[in-house]
Amino acid sequence: MPKLNSFNIKITTGEQGMDEAVQFSINSHIVPFDNIQGGTGAGQTFEGDFEINSFAHSLTLVGPENGEWNIREMEVGFETENIEPYSVRYGEVTLDPTTEVNLWQDPPLKTFDV
Predict the structure, then answer these.
(1) Which of 11, 16, 50, 110 is the most buried (most CB within 10 A)?
(2) The model's pTM
(3) Judging by beta carbons within 10 Å of its beta carbon (0-12, 13-18, 19+), is residue 79 exposed, middle or buried?
(4) pLDDT digits (tens, 9 = 90+) for 71-80
(5) How many domains does the chain have?
(6) Cβ–Cβ under 8 Å, residues 57 and 103
């Protein structure tokens, strides 16, 4: 597992938005994003990032404290130590107070011609 320097997220909300701060959990610590842009209302796009500088034993997007939040799609960019930056796309999901989405994905394996 590489050390996670930072990550950014772009979330496109579907039919049902939310009116709360977007938060994530890193190693069981719930944290709000930095450098946020946009919103989480129906059809809106939210962007944020965070500088971690630690190993991500767990990294999840936290559901709202009240109601549901329908996410149409997400893209998460990772900057890790000694590995080229990479991004992962996620499909539709609905979050509520009891659900979280796992964001951490290991870096892609190096490819080479044989």
Answers:
(1) 11
(2) 0.91
(3) middle
(4) 999 999 999 9
(5) 1
(6) no
Q: Which tokens sit at 55?
A: 């190993």
User: For the segment 45-84, what is each residue's pLDDT rounded down to a tens digit?
Assistant: 999 999 999 999 999 999 999 999 999 999 999 999 988 9
Contacts of 50 (CB under 8 A, 6+ apart): 6, 7, 8, 24, 26, 31, 33, 34
| CA-CA-CA-CA dihedral for 7, 35, 21, 77, to nearest 10 | -20
Question: CB 52: neighbour CB atoms within 10 A?
Answer: 19
Q: Are strands 23-26 and 59-62 parallel, antiparallel or unpaired?
A: antiparallel
CATH of the domain at 63: 2.60.60
Question: For residue 35, what are the domain limits?
Answer: 3-102
